[in-house]
Amino acid sequence: MDLGGAYYNPKDQVSALETLRRKLPDLDTPPQPTPKRPRPGRARHLDDAHIQQLIAGYLSGSTVYELAEQFKIGRNTVCRILRRHHVPMRRRGLTPEQVTEAVQLYHQGWTPPRIGQRMGVDAVTIRRRLREHGLTIRNTQQPDRRQAGEG
């Protein structure tokens, strides 16, 4: 193969290689240290006194979310503790009136997380009820189309 023929022009190839070489890190300078990432926290175990406080709080009306925040544990952990101690769980859900309101708010442009926050339930619950009413859930990347003065 004749590389030095009349149509051979290495200038473009050499300049492309030079451009790529400039993008490589300089071997004379020390590498940047990797950023410190927070290590995952250890699971928090509640002692018997705190478990009894958690159960008493739930039985007196506190929500799983409130107790999770109060005891600095996950919502699922609160539920596991309550189930392990055979505490009957409350199912909040939505009343038919709340479902009707959720549908209206969704038609006004509210997002399921925002509706859920207003009604004190998870956004998944809102999405499920909206789908049950035949609504197609908007793309999550669409902005919240709230009107001035709402909320």
From TrEMBL:
Q: Which InterPro entries match?
A: ATPase_terminase-su_N (IPR010332), Homeodomain-like_sf (IPR009057)
> What are the boundaries of the region Disordered?
21-44
Which residue ranges does the record assign to the Terminase ATPase subunit N-terminal domain? 101-126
Transmembrane stretches, start-end: none
Q: Which Pfam families match?
A: Terminase_5
Q: Which domain of life is it from?
A: Bacteria
The protein depicted here goes by the name Helix-turn-helix protein
Organism, by scientific name, is Amycolatopsis cihanbeyliensis
